[in-house]
């Protein structure tokens, strides 16, 4: 991968945006009537002092941020992490993966690996184990990190750990309609909730097949880009 | 790793905290006089409607969240990602790594790998390349993800990519006092800004040594825990 030119282009683009902002809006931008794809739209007031915020490019910065017009606090917005596991059952004749059918939006009724937003004060592995317990009531032995998938248009990074399912005493949590074991042939590929889950499952079954010839499971990284960025 | 018991204990602990909160504060907690380590302290007002927020445990949740008393919006707080690179120069007699001396707090004057907070709408690799350009002006070819380090007490996850430095035409950015190449023997171990950087450098030089016997660079994951959690 060659990022030199790309990083430079991106940097120049951001500086251009910054310049246009400064010229048109005299540094301060209040209540913009347009949306910027790298800004979450919802911030209106300062969470520190309740005064209105405005979009500004702070000194020594290249991106518009929500800045309080009263106290000057800059409210940064950053991507969130989704952490989950690939619960693997190897005690039957054929290997199986545990999937959950979503009881919540988005993608209500579709199948997913147990996963959810990482919480403050936990590690990525703790978060993956917690989500597996909450959504599938599954007893697992967490193994190595298996996949990292960027989803930049929704400001998310998804991480999945391999996990050995210890027993079949699992049960749907409040966010799942049902939880069920699937062999590779049984996976409902057209009813998978998210592309990050589809890709992780495909990587997993590829590595599982390769493991039968003595190869170790790998670590996989992929960017899920919107068609316009591909 | 066996997470079954741990996840269960953590879940029970959270349910206990939730119960104590509900009993003592009749579900709603306004202006708490104590701090919770998994809550960022700064939120006072709703960023949607400017009314005061209070700490509450929403239905079907187990953690206190900032909830608006007026419009009911739940303001979730999640860990942030720090992304960076390990710029590696292999054209001299001895291999060298590019480090930056910090011009900003925290850890002003200490040495670090180029890294910073991941931004919305970028991938982890794009963020790592951007930070390398911004802090070190370095032209790199980004390679595989090398380390993932959890720092749960500050709600952060740090990711470092291996990177091949393409030339010596680098220069300190606004957040760096100076940037400089170091051989392994020259690394200022006592003046490294963050434990995540120290561990990543140690992993890197271990893998570099192993690579001379034909072994490939690996992927390393580590949790940096406070002494009380170790």
Number of helices of chain A: 3
Q: What letter string, H or E per element, gives the SSE order of chain A?
A: HEEEEEEEEHEEEHE
CATH architecture field of the largest domain in chain A: Alpha-Beta Complex
Which structural class do the helices and strands of chain A define?
alpha+beta
Q: pLDDT under 50 segments of chain A (min length 5)?
A: 21-37
CATH superfamily of the largest domain in chain A: Nucleoside Triphosphate Pyrophosphohydrolase
Mean pLDDT of chain A: 86
Task: Briefly note the CATH topology name of the largest domain in chain A.
Answer: Nucleoside Triphosphate Pyrophosphohydrolase
- Of all protein chain pairs, which has the greatest interface, and how many residues does each chain bring to it? A-B, 66 and 66 residues
How many DSSP-defined strands of chain A?
12
Largest sheet descriptor of chain A = 8 strands, mixed
Domains of chain A (count): 2
**What gap, in angstroms, lies between the N and C termini of chain A?**
15 Å
Oligomeric status: homodimer
Classify the helix fraction of chain A into a percent range: 10-25%
What overall geometry of chain A do the principal axes of the alpha carbons give? elongated
Taken as a percent bin, the fraction of beta residues of chain A is: 25-35%
Please compute the radius of gyration of chain A using only Cα atoms: 22 Å
